[in-house]
Amino acid sequence: MTRKVFWPEPYRTELETRVHDVRGNVITLEDTIFYAFSGGQESDEGTIGGRRVREARKAGSDIHYTLDEGHGLTPGEAVTVLIDWERRYRLMRLHFAAELVLELVSRRVVGIPKIGAHIAQDKARIDFTYPESISSLLPDISSQALQVVTSNVPIISDFSDEAAGIRYWEVEGFARVPCGGTHLRRTGEVGELELKRKNIGKGKERIEVFLKGGSLASPS
Question: Which domains, ranges and CATH numbers included, belong to the chain?
Fold first, then answer.
C-alpha cells in the first residue's frame, strides 16, 4: 500500500521516497505526495526521479504512476517526488469552494440530486438534476459561501475510518463532509468566488465555480 503523505501534509511539494514496484512504464512508490484523480479532483502534475508523470490513477490502496517508456527506474531506487505547487493550491481552493457550494445548495433544496462534479485548475463544476433554472439560487448561495470564507476558520481534515482510508473535512459549526481530497488549512484561503449557471440538458443544471484573484500560499 502506498503511504499517502498528501493527506496529513497537503502543502508539501517535495518528498524523498523509494520506488516500490515497476511494471513497464507504470511504477508505484513506498510514499507519495502526488495526488491521483479522485472524487472529481484532478491529479497533480510533476515529476518522479526527474521523470514527468504522464498519468496518476488509483488502484485499490496503491497509486499507479505512468512514466515515459525507458524511464530506467528500478524497485528500491531512491527518488525525489516534486509536484506543481501552483496547480495543487488552485485545485485545493476550488475543491473546497465546490464542496462548500454543494453543501449550501443541498441545504437550500433538500434532496437535490448531484449527478457529477469536476475540479480542474481553471474552474470547478457541480451538476444537478433540477427542473428549472438554478440561477435564482446563486445570489443567496454566493452570499452564504462568502460568509464561510471570510470567517477564515480552520478546516479540519482527518480519518473517519483509517483502516478503510475514509476521510472527511469539517468546519466546526457548519458541516462535516466525507471527502478524500487534499484540503486547505483555513476557509479564508479560498478567496473571492464567482458562480455561474449553465444548462447542460433538459432537467439538468450546472454551477461553475471560479476563483477571483487571491495570492499563492507558501508551501511548507
Answer: 3-83 (2.40.30.130), 87-212 (3.30.980.10)
